[in-house]
Amino acid sequence: MPKSTGAGTLLGLAVTGLAVAFAGPAAAAVKAPGFLAAADLPPHPASSWTAGDVTAGVPQETGEDACLRALPGHTAAWHRDFRTDLDTGARQITVVLSDTRTAEQLTSRLNADIESCAARIEQQQPDTRATGKDYGTLPVEDGAHVYGVHTETSWGASDVRLLSVGRDGRTVTVVNWAQLGGFEGAPVRAFKKTTTTAVDKLR
Q1: How far apart are CA 174 and CA 91, in angstroms?
Q2: Which of 13, 41, 88, 196 has its CA 20 to 30 A from that of 47?
Q3: What are the DSSP calls for 18-72, one per residue?
Q4: Residue 9: which of 99, 69, 96 has the closest Cα?
């Protein structure tokens, strides 16, 4: 899959053979929450979605993602990658916390990370222009919030991603969709539906 910038590993979402970190005994001791299926992703006009396995841990490269700094380090966590045959990929990462208060704190940190990541990308990569959008909240379980981030490099590479953070009790999930292009090609309405489904499936 093409990968035109290093900004948050935008299109490195659906590659196979990812190294997984932080998959310790805690993940094995807690039952994995429900995850999205391929059919739950925003429809792609030219390719079907393929879902990978639900895998314990937070992928290592998430630690380099300027938008999701709060995710690495959690032990009771799982992820699932999704891919198309073209330039679009997605990933869901879900963490089960020790209690609701801790889950609320992680949700707040993730929302803050995403809201500020465009400015952080520009600071870290002076040849990249980044723009963030807030697409609002969703009334599902304990709430969800949807965002967009677009990056364009000085040599013309353009990537867009949609991200959402949702919570049900002590379980927090992040859905991350990305493809080449700009905001005009981002399926915001369909992604909101995907996010609602993701949070509904956490039980």
Answers
A1: 8
A2: 196
A3: --EE---HHHHHSPPPP---GGGSPPPSS---EE---EESEEGGGGG-TT-TTST
A4: 69
124-156 per-position pLDDT tens digit: 999 999 999 999 999 999 999 999 999 999 998
CA distances in angstroms from 195 to 44, 172, 178, listed in the order given: 16, 12, 14
**Among 104, 87, 102, 101, which residue's Cα sits nearest to residue 15?**
87
The model's pTM: 0.87
Give domain limits for the chain.
20-34+51-200
- pLDDT tens digits, one per residue of 28-80: 567 889 999 999 999 998 889 999 999 999 998 998 999 999 999 888 999 99
For the segment 84-133, what is each residue's pLDDT rounded down to a tens digit?
A: 998 899 999 999 999 999 999 999 999 999 999 999 999 999 999 999 99
CATH number of 20-34+51-200: 3.40.1000
